[in-house]
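Sorry to interrupt, but I need a hand with the structure work. Can you supply me with one protein entry, sequence and fold together? No commentary is needed, just the two lines. Leave the record below and I will have a look.
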Amino acid sequence: MAALVLAALAAALAAVLALRWVDPPTTAFMLEARAHAWHRGEHHYRTHYRWVSLEQISAQAAIAVIASEDQRFPFNAGFDFKSIREAVRAHERGARLRGASTITQQVAKNLFLWPGRSYVRKAMEAVLTVFIDALWPKERVLEVYLNIAQFGRGVYGVQAAARTFYGKSAARLTRVDSALLAAVLPDPDHLRVNAPSRYLLARRDRILQQMANLGGPAYLRSIEPRGLGPAQPPRSRRLLH
C-alpha cells in the first residue's frame, strides 16, 4: 500500500511539474462534462476552449477573478487559512458552510479531479495544491486558472468566453465585461453571462467595487515570479507592468 501511495504521489508531482511549462490541452472537468453530456444523449454538446498566454488576456480579467475568488492570492501559500477559519466560525454560529477555496486549489481541482465534496477528493486536492504552490510561480497559476475556469456550459477560459459572449478577444475585455464573467464563476452551469439575472448583475457590481478597492490592475504588481526559472518565456511579465 505504501508503495502505491508513493507511486501516486510521484506521478502527481511529475504531472504538476510538466504543466508548469506545458499548456494543458484539456482538464478533468472538461472531460467529465463532455462524458455526462454524451451519457444524456446530448451529442450536440461542444467544448469551447482556446489557450492564450497571460499577456493576451486583459489585466481587467485577471483582477476581476482575483477580486471575485481569492483576494489574498498574491500572498497566500496555496491555501487561505484566514478564510477557512472565518468560514468554520460562521458555520458554528449557524450559517451555511461556504467554500474558501483559493485560485490555486481551484486549479488543482479543475485540472486533475472531479466535482464533489468527499474527503478523498479534498485530500487529493490539498496534495496537488501544495505541489502547484511549490513548483509554479503565481503568474503561471493565474494564467492556467484564467484559461481553464468555466464561464458557461461548455465554455472554458477567458478567450472562449470573450469570443462566445462578447465577440472579441480576451485582450479587449473591459472592467464591466470582466466583472460579469467573474460573477458567474460560482455556478457557471446556471448563471448566464448572455442573460444575466438581477442577482448576477448585483454580484457583478460588487466585484467591480472590489476591483476598485484592490486598486485595479496595479494590484497585480504584487504577484512576483518565483520557483525553478520562468514558467514560460518572460512574456507574462508584460501584463504586470
Confidence is low (pLDDT under 50) at residues 227-241. The domain at 2-240 is CATH 1.10.3810.10 (Penicillin binding protein transpeptidase fold). The chain has one domain: 2-240. The two ends are 49 Å apart (CA to CA).
